[in-house]
Each structure stands twice: as C-alpha cells, then as structure tokens.
Design brief:
By secondary structure, this protein is of the alpha+beta class. 25% of the residues lie in helices and 39% in strands. It is built from three helices and six strands. It has helices spanning 2-20, 26-30, 75-78, and strands at 34-44, 48-55, 58-66, 84-87, 93-98, 101-106. Strands 3-2-1-4-5-6 form a six-stranded antiparallel β-sheet, with no helix packed on it. It is globular and about 50 Å long.
C-alpha cells in the first residue's frame, strides 16, 4: 500500500508541475552550453535540482533541472560527483561521461 501511495504522490507532483508550467524556457536552455566535472548536486524538492560543475578554475551551476521526468531524461539520478558533463550550444542533449561510458539524456524540462 505504501508503494501505491508513493506512486500517487509522485504522479500528483508531476501533474502539478506540468499544469503550472514551471519549467524553464526551451530556447534559453538550448542557447547555453556547458562542460565540466560535477562537484555538487543540490536537490530542491519537489521536482527540481541544480548541478554545480567545475571547468578549470571556473565554477558554474546548471539550474532548474527537472527531476520528475521519464527515464530518458533522468540526468539527475544517473549523474554522480566527478562525472564529466557537457551540452553543446544549440542542442538539448546533455552527455554524462563516466570512465569509458557516455550516456546521453534529453534536457530535463518539467513541462515538455
């Protein structure tokens, strides 16, 4: 019964986020690029998170990643500290590099 309650709660959160349209603008995210090593993951419940990356001496934060998304967009759950992460300008694909494995994800928007 607890599993069903947990699923219902998550579905409710996803619907709330979708209805409110609280995801970031697609064009804004498409125009940005980033490349670096994940140094921190910041969970901002119920459905958002940030990833802090370091590239050389520069620190940057990838903000408002949606965590209430289908598997093909679960960048947040897959990523680990010290993974490399990149996104090219003009694209909505984020790549995680871990040892000899590259995993690609669609940019995790909540309302798209």
């Amino acid at each position: 019964m607890k599993k069903i309650e947990a699923i219902a709660k998550n579905v409710g959160l996803i619907l709330l986020v979708y209805i409110l349209g609280c995801g970031p603008d697609i064009d804004e995210k498409r125009d940005k690029s980033f490349n670096g090593i994940i140094v921190e993951k910041i969970d901002t419940p119920p459905c958002f998170a940030d990833i802090v990356i370091k590239h050389g001496n520069n620190i940057d934060t990838i903000k408002d990643l949606c965590t209430c998304v289908p598997i093909k967009k679960q960048l947040w759950k897959y990523s680990l500290l010290n993974d490399s992460i990149s996104k090219a300008k003009g694209e909505l694909t984020v790549k995680i590099f871990r040892k000899n494995v590259v995993q690609s994800f669609e940019y995790p928007f909540c309302n798209h």
